[in-house]
């Protein structure tokens, strides 16, 4: 995190034998050069460093450095991949292989690394006699929140998974319903322990942005309730976030995807990356090394041809859906050019180059669609080939919450009220008032409108496939999805979830592979 000190995880001390005639209890001695669990958890600073380590698992390749955005994006009809790397190419085609755990296996491993670290905090911090009891409660609240967040990803993407609430080595596989129950319990506990803002606290964490807040915990609880069709519960909690009065849409949509204006009023929770923090080495996974930076590889992975690897591209369907919208001034939806780099007749500049000129000698690229969201394409960077993007990943935006709140209002019979929250998102980009152009929509018509709004507002942010799955479209609209995105042609039942990594099946007794694999 940008202003949270790095912490390197605890390692168990090795045991060594001393020679000579000594008592048996003298034979085992701790290595004085290595921290142990027993020697580490002593004071306020140790507790704070401990929870910082839990945040650290958000920054590695398995999570938001690269793998998790790929896993969330590529199955949607807003993205496609022609990556030469089979593991990546196959994600969006629902063909991830049990024999090759690349990408999805790294994510699974890192989610449980984060859960383990959270459990370390939850087991050890209560035993510390801290001078600042309010700080202690905030640290525990963050651990509950982060455990809930990592488990949210595991349950949502891998279905039936272990649900560890202790640091014991083995945990049996649970049903998805049991997993969701623990996610909700963790967020519920976190809500009572977290502040609305760290600007209003005293202690060593005062003023630090990027830490989990009460609003983030309520928002994720509401999202978990929505994902489990508890519309009434979700409606109550989405409204609690709105009523906090601390979140609002930023005027410029672009500000959600650049290094400028990070941790802004629209950000409910974001992962903190920085080119200035740490070293310059890439932190691919495992135990951190001293040279690791705190940067993201998302930009180079998604970047337009010639500026990065172009492993992810927008679909033609997404582009055409954007073109259905026109502002009150008769212009294209401004979110289009923030999301997609293309040969705009009005001109398009990326990394200081004119699109049409740069691709003039390559007709296929001249007419292609590339990802612009979360790219360093506006400033003085010439490309992404150093792998080191410092753009924070906004994993929960207020716009997302407003549209989910509109959805649950509609689902619970308050269709007219849903108009207001959809229109807040449309007003930001100067789109016409739905009450005027589409008055008196039925519940089904409003649902279709919200689905359209979410497709455009949240494109390539890891939400589309979650929506497709929870709405049941893999059962009811598969032919339609195949028309929009040919990658759906290889979907088969059960492949909406990733396989449990084979090492987990082999090493954790009783673990069963997900259906469809």
From TrEMBL:
<protein>
    <submittedName>
        <fullName>RagB/SusD family nutrient uptake outer membrane protein</fullName>
    </submittedName>
</protein>
<dbReference type="InterPro" id="IPR011990">
    <property type="entry name" value="TPR-like_helical_dom_sf"/>
</dbReference>
<feature type="domain" description="RagB/SusD">
    <location>
        <begin position="266"/>
        <end position="517"/>
    </location>
</feature>
<keyword id="KW-0732">Signal</keyword>
<dbReference type="InterPro" id="IPR012944">
    <property type="entry name" value="SusD_RagB_dom"/>
</dbReference>
<feature type="domain" description="SusD-like N-terminal">
    <location>
        <begin position="102"/>
        <end position="225"/>
    </location>
</feature>
<keyword id="KW-0472">Membrane</keyword>
<dbReference type="InterPro" id="IPR033985">
    <property type="entry name" value="SusD-like_N"/>
</dbReference>
<dbReference type="GO" id="GO:0009279">
    <property type="term" value="C:cell outer membrane"/>
</dbReference>
<keyword id="KW-0998">Cell outer membrane</keyword>
<dbReference type="Pfam" id="PF07980">
    <property type="entry name" value="SusD_RagB"/>
</dbReference>
<comment type="similarity">
    <text>Belongs to the SusD family.</text>
</comment>
<dbReference type="Pfam" id="PF14322">
    <property type="entry name" value="SusD-like_3"/>
</dbReference>
